[in-house]
Amino acid sequence: xxxxxxxxxxxxxxxxxxxxxxxxxxxxxxxxxxxxxxxxxxxxxxxxxxxxxxxxxxxxxxxxxxxxxxxxxxxxxxxxxxx
Length: 83
Description:
This protein is mainly beta and 83 residues long. Helices cover 10% and strands 41% of the residues. The chain has one domain (2-81). Strand 4 (25-30) and strand 5 form a beta hairpin.
């Protein structure tokens, strides 16, 4: 897999990618009609890690993931290619 992305410091909208210090990749998605519409999805297991009522802070994400976040990336400047 080849990934090209520009980094940023905090998640500020659905679609942002979160990369951990152990290179696990997560994405913040949104399901508008739900009570807790923001979902943290693990791209390794394709499972929902946590639901949020609003966009979570970096600290909340690290607590729910269980490890430090290396970078947060904007989905508008990211591409993923499967090799």
